[in-house]
Amino acid sequence: MREIIAGISHIDSAELQLILQNPDNKTLIIDVREPGEYIAGHIPGIPLIPMNDIPDYVQELDADREYIFVCRSGGRSYEVARFLKHNGFEKVHNFYGGMLSWSYEVTEGPEKIIQQFDPALLERN
């Protein structure tokens, strides 16, 4: 269920799971943790752009798209959502509770670590 906290929309794990299961939902979901955290366990199919790299890609992200940001506990992803909101992105959400609250499928390894920006890499398969 979505909730607005400090001006940012937060979604819970059940809603995120529904979004992931809906192939018609084109929301971009981005993990913003560090590579080691991502490799240790992440939501399958979700790309990684570490929080500190997001400012480098602001001009290349599509401000008309909807985004959900994921981190370990919800703090870093909240800061990324807040940063993008202040940069003109209206449809940004924080995954409340982060991976600590995720009880669905997790995979290990460097599946989709974004090292050179390509918008196609952000899409779910």
UniProtKB/TrEMBL annotation:
Pfam families, per the entry: Rhodanese
Superkingdom as given in the UniProt entry: Bacteria
InterPro entries xref list: GlpE_sulfurtransferase, Rhodanese-like_dom, Rhodanese-like_dom_sf
Domain Rhodanese: 23-107
Name of the molecule in the record: Rhodanese domain-containing protein
Lineage: Bacteria, Bacillati, Bacillota, Bacilli, Bacillales
Annotated gene: ytwF
